[in-house]
Amino acid sequence: MLFIIFVILTPITIWLTLHFMSRRKASTEEVEPGSLIEVCAICQNEFTMTELLEKEVGGYGRVYCFCGQCIENLYNEYRNKKDTNIGE
Prior knowledge:
The protein is α+β, with helices and mostly antiparallel strands. It folds into two domains: 1-30; 32-88, 2-Layer Sandwich (Wheat Germ Agglutinin (Isolectin 2), domain 1), CATH 3.30.60. Helix content is 53%, strand content 20%. The chain has helices spanning 2-28, 68-87, and strands at 37-39, 46-48, 52-57, 62-67. A hairpin with a 4-residue loop joins strand 3 and strand 4 (62-67).
């Protein structure tokens, strides 16, 4: 009897629990079906892959995703730094 509980019923119970939790989580999100969700490497907010820019960084092939707002903020910081260095 213990064999049946540990080998058969426990994995089925775990699988069913995870299955229902993932279905509930997917139904509460308002994302287009089939679209991939990724996190911006800078702000850590979730976006669909169509909203992110992917860049391979370094020689070892690590791919980072960046959102438009973070890219714009980095550009503005770079321009401000470049402008202050020219004025010196």
